[in-house]
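Supplementary notes for students who missed Thursday's class. We covered one full example, reproduced here. Read the sequence, then the structure, then the short commentary at the end.
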Amino acid sequence: MPASKIDRSTIACPVELTMSLISNKWKTLIIRNLLSGRKRFSELSKGLPGISQKVLTANLRELERDGLVLRTVYPEVPPRVEYELTEIGMSLKQIIEVMLVWGCSYQQK
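Structure (token representation):
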């Protein structure tokens, strides 16, 4: 896995570091969808209406590079590729859940 493009040593604020990893709209939604378990590319695509294959691929690569998503390629014909959250990625569950609660509350106001 290539090194993350985010240089942790230059970001002093932990909130800024977290936001730099997940602030993209699609990354947060990809993480949310993977919280329920391992998924194939097509499953992720169906669960994210409006995302193009190119954008989904780019975001999955960035999440993998940053250590949040694990990509597993199975030696089968046709090839099977699955994505799942790493332990670090799963540690974002509480943040996503709080965002869900806050968003629901905000929608009702």
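Commentary. The mean pLDDT is 91. The helical segments are 14-22, 25-34, 41-46, 53-65, 87-90, 93-107. If anything here is unclear, bring it to office hours.
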